[in-house]
Amino acid sequence: MGMTSQMAEISVRYIVDDIDKAVDFYTGQLGFEVGMGPGPGFVMLQRSGLRLFLNTPGGGGGAGEASGGKMPEPGGWNRFRIEVEDLEAIVEALTGAGVDFRGDIIEGRGGRQIIVDDPAGNPIELFEPKPA
Questions:
Q1: pLDDT digits over 52-77, tens only?
Q2: How far apart, in whole angstroms, are the C-alpha atoms of residue 70 and residue 39?
Q3: What is the pLDDT of residue 52?
Q4: What whole-number distance in Å separates Cα of residue 16 and Cα of residue 59?
């Protein structure tokens, strides 16, 4: 059976080192709200229709041991994107809060972007589209 347009919503799962630090970052810096939890090794956050599942390695659900004995870990370059109106103001506020970035703001065909790391090193793209 293929994917259909009747799927309810999209969720993303990130592996994090510390649930409390992750909740503080996503709710305090990026405007997420807690939807479920936090509990031991798990929390579900929500923002603008996105459900973000955060697990510690081995914290149940999609964070258990994979075949071959490899455990999930934070990091990588796959990411979700948050569209913003004033990228420079947000970067300034996050810099003041001690948040880490992967490089500087870059300009592309569709707008400007920067990649910010959550406390576990998972990337989030902040994107400001070019004016229409």
A1: 999 998 765 556 555 566 777 888 88
A2: 24
A3: 95
A4: 10
How many of the other CB atoms lie within 10 Å of CB of 41?
A: 17
Beta carbons within 10 angstroms of residue 126's beta carbon: 20
How many domains are contained in the chain? 1
pTM of the model: 0.80
Identify which of 109, 106, 113, 108 has the alpha carbon closest to the alpha carbon of residue 127: 113
Q: Is residue 35 part of a domain?
A: yes
CB contact burial 11-21 (16+ within 10 A = b; e otherwise):
eeebbbeebee
Residue with the two structure tokens 């920067």? 114
Domain extent at residue 25: 11-59+77-129
CATH number at residue 29: 3.10.180.10
Please give the distance of CA 55 from its chain centroid, rounded to a whole number: 12
CA distances from 121 to 14, 25, 40, 58, 86 (A): 10, 12, 20, 18, 24
Q: What are phi and psi of 56, to 5 degrees?
A: -85, 155
